[in-house]
């Protein structure tokens, strides 16, 4: 991992009233991620996070090297990755990649196909009977978009996947998103805002939300 957190920023859900940035004190017209929190880098807390990431990367490497039919060993390693017991009905097909582990929770009869990435520092909650296709990414972490702050903080916001959701192959779910009960996310979709219950969403898009200021001299 080249830098703390993965630089996955979800699109704006609408401008908020003008206020002051909670860290810099500068005027702030909008906040790109709902419920976003920040972890300052180069602190004891961020170092503890980095150490946990290194541990979980080692554990997932061990998980993915196990024989496919060694179910007991796979469940033992998953318990270490997630910091405690997981439901007996949880099915995760390797390879599986996770960067933190302690932020993830699962309901009953959850199926996660091959090649998925869970970046769960901000919290990932998976409901009952959720089906997740191959190569799906759930990313709760990123960095501020402003250049003056980008390398000083890890941003994070929770992802919630409600009961009976189906997420298609290679979809990406970004920080702060809730996917409502019974909904379907089409293959390859990038989900950057909440999905209402019993909805089908598809496709990708790139929308320019605003222009960034140049970095300060010396940044």
Order of helices and strands: EEEHHEEEEEEEEEEEEEEEEE
User: How much helix is in the residues?
Assistant: 10-25%
Query: Mean of the pLDDT scores?
Result: 84
* N- and C-termini, Cα separation: 22 Å
Strand content: 15-25%
Largest sheet composition: 6 strands, parallel
Q: Give me the Rg, rounded.
A: 18 Å
Number of helices: 2
Structural account:
- 16% of the residues lie in helices and 23% in strands.
- By secondary structure, it is an alpha/beta fold.
- The strands form 5 sheets. Strands 4-7-10-15-18-20 form a 6-stranded parallel beta sheet, with no helix packed on it.
- Helix 1 packs antiparallel against helix 2 (71-82).
Provide key terms for this protein.
219 residues; alpha/beta; six-stranded parallel β-sheet; globular; disordered N terminus
Quick overview of this protein structure:
Helix content is 16%, strand content 23%. It has helices at residues 44-65, 71-82; strands at 19-20, 27-28, 37-40, 91-92, 96-98, 104-106, 111-112, 116-119, 124-126, 131-132, 137-139, 141-142, 153-156, 159-161, 166-167, 172-173, 178-179, 184-185, 190-191, 200-201.
Fold topology:
Layout: E1 19-20, E2 27-28, E3 37-40, H1 44-65, H2 71-82, E4 91-92, E5 96-98, E6 104-106, E7 111-112, E8 116-119, E9 124-126, E10 131-132, E11 137-139, E12 141-142, E13 153-156, E14 159-161, E15 166-167, E16 172-173, E17 178-179, E18 184-185, E19 190-191, E20 200-201
Parallel strand pairs: 4-7, 5-8, 6-9, 7-10, 8-11, 9-14, 10-15, 11-16, 14-17, 15-18, 16-19, 18-20
Antiparallel strand pairs: 1-2, 3-13, 12-13
Helix pairs in contact: 1-2
């Amino acid at each position: 991992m080249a830098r703390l957190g993965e630089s996955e920023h979800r699109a704006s859900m609408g401008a908020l009233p003008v206020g002051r940035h909670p860290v810099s004190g500068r005027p702030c017209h909008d906040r790109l991620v709902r419920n976003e929190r920040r972890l300052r880098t180069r602190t004891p807390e961020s170092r503890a996070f980095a150490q946990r990431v290194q541990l979980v990367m080692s554990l997932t490497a061990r998980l993915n090297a196990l024989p496919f039919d060694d179910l007991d060993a796979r469940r033992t390693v998953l318990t270490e990755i997630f910091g405690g017991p997981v439901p007996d009905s949880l099915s995760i097909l390797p390879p599986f990649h996770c960067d933190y582990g302690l932020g993830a929770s699962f309901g009953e009869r959850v199926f996660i196909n091959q090649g998925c990435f869970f970046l769960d520092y901000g919290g990932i909650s998976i409901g009952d009977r959720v089906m997740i296709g191959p190569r799906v990414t759930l990313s709760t972490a990123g960095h501020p978009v402003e250049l003056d702050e980008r390398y000083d903080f890890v941003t994070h916001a929770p992802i919630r996947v409600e009961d009976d959701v189906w997420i298609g192959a290679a979809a990406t779910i970004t920080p702060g998103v809730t996917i409502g009960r019974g909904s379907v996310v089409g293959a390859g979709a990038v989900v950057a805002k909440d999905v209402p219950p019993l909805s089908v969403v598809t496709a990708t898009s790139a929308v320019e939300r605003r222009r960034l200021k140049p970095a300060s001299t010396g940044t």
